[in-house]
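USER:
Try writing one entry.

ASSISTANT:
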Amino acid sequence: MKNEELTYNSLPKISFKSIFKNKAWRHGFILILILVTFQTNSGNFATLTYSPAIMKSAGVTWNPELQTLSFPAVMILASFISMSCVEKFGRKPLISITFAGAILAHAVLGTTMLLQSQGSNTPGWLPVLAIVLYVFVYAGGISPMPYIIMAEMFNFQIRAKVMGCLVTYAWFMSFLQLASFTAVANFLGVYTVVYCYAGINLCGALTSLIFLPETKANTTILTYGFQAGWVSPMTKVLQSANSPSGYPLTDYEISWIASAICLAAMFGVSLFTYIVDKYGRRVAVLLTAALQAVSWILKLSSAHIGVLITARLLAGLGAGGCYNVVPMYVREISQD
């Protein structure tokens, strides 16, 4: 890695204009941009964050404590399975299969909600199974694979610039998804939004199967469910009469707590792209960990809405760096 970094420092700086003039780089950038669009609009943060509201629409009440334990457990299991399969089967089959699993999960969940809205009875375990299936395939393939692929697709000379741009875009799309979910769901119905997610995952599966090249070379797995999904089981608690904030938080306040991480992550990507170039990968990785630690300390110290939003903003800054720096760093050290 040191030899490669010395080589990189000796090379002339490449501008975005030069990157887009290169046909192969331009094609790769556009392809990953499309893939990230489908990934960030696949229902990931909305499903993780607003699962209590989604379950309520499906006629199911889910214990917040159980959800707090189940989501991370499912995501960790999916990550381990993904790590064991990614080198054997490749990136392309894995992301295609997980997109297909997300189609099934959202189709089942949307149909359950639609039947419930029409007065029909459906098994209570069915929407739970659908959400767990989506969390599994999201953590196992939809979430990590685009970042692994972009780290392997672009060479060392342009990787930081291209990944910084793509990850900023990904967080912006995630912010829009979280900020607009409640309003769109109230207007069109939650089941309509869930069906839209199924359609987006179908587009992602087709794009992966038809256009995505296989980039199998080195393995990196990145999961970030704890910070992103923390607000999901806490929504019911924060909006209850016994809210630790002192009063039940409104949907508007919850939407800001939920989306703050994505809003800050957009700026975190640019910040950590600069830190990587100025101080190196290792310093950037350590700083992402420090930001996460401070974020959790703030959450544990107070349930005031201002403190919670501040904690989520710090988590977002760290997340922007995590999704940008960690795949790049692991990709580079694995070559040695």
In short: Residues 2-334 form a domain with the Growth Hormone; Chain: A; fold (CATH 1.20.1250.20). The chain has one domain: 2-334. Confidence is low (pLDDT under 50) at residues 217-230. Residues 159-188 form the longest helix (30 residues).
